[in-house]
Task: structure prediction
Amino acid sequence: MKIALCKSHFAGPISGADETLVAYALGLHQADYDVCVVLLYRCAEDDQYYLRLKQAGVPVSFVVTRSRLFDLVRRCRDLLGHALFFIFLAPGLLPALRRLWQALMQGMTRSHHRACRALLKFIRPDILHVFTPDSGARLLISVGHELGIPVLYQELGTPQHLSALNGHYREMEKVLPLCAEFVALSPQLATEWSARFPSLPSVSVFPLLIERAHTYNFAAPFPLDPGEVVFGFG
Result:
């Protein structure tokens, strides 16, 4: 079975979603699963998450190998995000900037449908495991469904999210029925997401932590198979 872990892009330099994806990829790879990572947009060669995957031998594929527009939009967003004086002087503009960013990303993403379809047909994964509720995730879910690939969408956040994310979740509701499974990080979050999306047939639990069993299973009476993977949640 070939598992493709998918995301729009690495959002680093530090990102909880990126950390989770890389942890899953490394753990599954070490346990001898056929796993790869698929990103919609190419990351920098020195991106820490990319380097960790590359050093471990986990293949990483990019739907878009070069997008000057994406690079420009992301740099502008980062500059505005770091301009604290701008935030203090004009805090009312932040929601507008977020909406603009979301609209630009959604417009750019639509144009990559054919390239995304071609890459997934070439890789031919048996399962798509998609992270993060953005336009890239929606594209990956839609294309996976078109190709008959079962899609697992994993929600890493809480239903009590920032109001700025409401637009993302309104759009996500349109593609969630295309997923074979919707998962959250803990039983509590699974219950909360079931209430947030009552149309979903079920919400399963896919925990956050992933480590080699023989390292952290202190309660085991004897060493376990070193190829076993253990998931856990707090």
About this structure: Residues 69-106 form one domain. The chain has two domains: 2-67+113-232, 69-106.
